[in-house]
Amino acid sequence: MLKKELQAAVEKGTMLPLMEEFYTIQGEGYHTGTAAYFIRVGGCDVGCHWCDVKESWNAELHPPTEIEKIVENAKRESNVIVITGGEPLTWDMGPLTAQLKENNLKVHMETSGAYPLSGTWDWITLSPKKTKLPTQTVYDSAHELKVIIFNKHDFIFAEEQAALVNKDAILFLQPEWSKKEEMTPLIVDYVMQNPKWRVSLQTHKYLNIP
Q: What detail does the entry give on cofactor binding (predicted)?
């Protein structure tokens, strides 16, 4: 394909900048400990300074891939698919999720919510960032709210976000990995005092898996 045609296909969501795909154990949030196939798409301008996949930010580093190929790989591995990034909602997720659903797969997403919701989802994990706040469509549709705690002020941010998300969203606080020794005890205390929240840990890092 010519570059212009590739760009048009990416904009339509029929091709996506694919960074990596892998089958592993979900390490965070409500579905911790369950097997899932992860699809990581490139492209993100939210710019979290503690992001552990900064190589995902530049979409041009990751080859545009036909969604048919992505779906074919996914359905061989698991019936639960997690779309992550980067920021998946940078792109139109409608075509990819439609094909995944046609294959009777459960489709989850991990997103900052920075762009309007697209696609059809069985589970949406919203992890909001101060640098680019979520759109209302994602607040309204999120199944879980997962706020990363890097410093004490993030507890205030967490409560602000909890007030904006829909009433059915499950609320999680998760220590940023480099601050886990410092912040985990504070999160435990906070959840004990505010039991509407739950603790989330990056268990995949403790297990030394992707």
A: Binds 1 [4Fe-4S] cluster. The cluster is coordinated with 3 cysteines and an exchangeable S-adenosyl-L-methionine.
Q: 51: annotated binding-site residue? A: yes
Contact (CB, 8 A) for 156 and 134: no
* Residue 198 token pair: 């739950």
Cα(174)–Cα(187) distance, rounded to whole angstroms?
8
Half-sphere exposure of 36 (CA within 13 A, CB side): 25
Give me the mean pLDDT over the 52-66 stretch: 88
Provide the residue ranges of all domains of the chain, joining segments of one domain with +.
16-207
pLDDT confidence tier of residue 51, bands split at 50, 70 and 90: confident
Q: Is 27 annotated as a binding residue?
A: yes
154 is in an annotated binding site: no
Q: 210: annotated binding-site residue?
A: yes
- For 99-142, the pLDDT digits (tens) are 999 999 999 999 999 999 999 999 999 999 999 999 999 999 99
User: What superfamily in CATH does domain 16-207 come from?
Assistant: Aldolase class I (3.20.20.70)
**Annotated binding-site residue? 25:** yes
Ligand-binding site membership of 50 (annotated): yes
203 labeled binding residue: no
